[in-house]
Write a structure and sequence with these properties.
By secondary structure, the protein is of the alpha+beta class. The protein folds into two domains: about 80 residues; about 110 residues, Head domain of nucleotide exchange factor GrpE (Nucleotide Exchange Factor Grpe, Chain A, domain 2), CATH 2.30.22. The chain is about 65% helix and about 15% strand. The chain has a three-stranded antiparallel beta sheet. A hairpin with a 2-residue loop joins β4 and β5. α2 runs antiparallel to α3. The model has no long low-confidence stretch (mean pLDDT about 80).
């Protein structure tokens, strides 16, 4: 038995360096696998951080693009509304001399005291024409006996004021001015009292 024990002990002693080596290899392998896992974790964390930063950048670009599109939509809508307001501007400007002629004709007809069918027909047409202008946003600039305003009026000349209260004010209107939806399409040509 002692021989068997000695044999087993000898075998154990012989095997012990191998077992110790295996255990050391196993421990080293575990350390390496922990390092690999830590390295893999850090790599995964890096990739996650990159993906998160990309996501934030894409969200920011998306929000900016949405805001830019909203601004574009509002701007084009505003431009379209402005275009609609002034679409007939050139046509209406070309009609202004006809309005002037109509006003002169009405003044001449008012001098005639005879009430004829021609006079009533012309008045009817004049009233319809004035209504047409209102519907299209054309308004006359009030000038007579108003304070002179360079933003609305164009002074042709100055004359002595017929009364003290008309000094510095508009005495007479040579040519009427008109607004088209709050935009001046023709200034009033006026005479100022001094």
């Amino acid at each position: 038995m002692t021989e068997d024990k000695a044999k087993v002990n000898g075998e154990l002693e012989n095997e012990t360096p191998e077992v110790v080596e295996q255990q050391e290899d196993s421990a080293q392998h575990k350390k390496e696998s922990k390092k690999d896992k830590a390295h893999k974790k850090s790599k995964a964390e890096e990739q996650l951080e990159i993906a998160e930063s990309d996501l934030l950048e894409l969200k920011d670009r998306h929000i900016r693009l949405q805001a830019e599109f909203d601004n574009y939509r509002k701007r084009t809508l505003k431009e379209r509304m402005e275009l609609m307001k002034t679409a007939n501007e050139s046509l209406l400007i070309n009609i202004l001399p006809v309005i002037d002629d109509f006003d002169r004709a009405m003044q001449t007809l008012d001098l005639d005291e005879d009430e004829s069918h021609v006079k009533s027909g012309v008045k009817l047409i004049y009233n319809k024409f004035q209504e047409f202008l209102k519907q299209n946003g054309v308004k006359e600039i009030e000038a007579k006996e108003q304070n002179f305003d360079t933003d609305l009026h164009e002074a042709i000349t100055k004359i002595p004021a017929p009364s003290e209260e008309l000094k510095g004010k508009i005495v007479d209107v040579v040519q009427k001015g008109y607004f088209l939806n709050d935009k001046i399409i023709r200034f009033s040509k006026v005479i100022i009292g001094e």
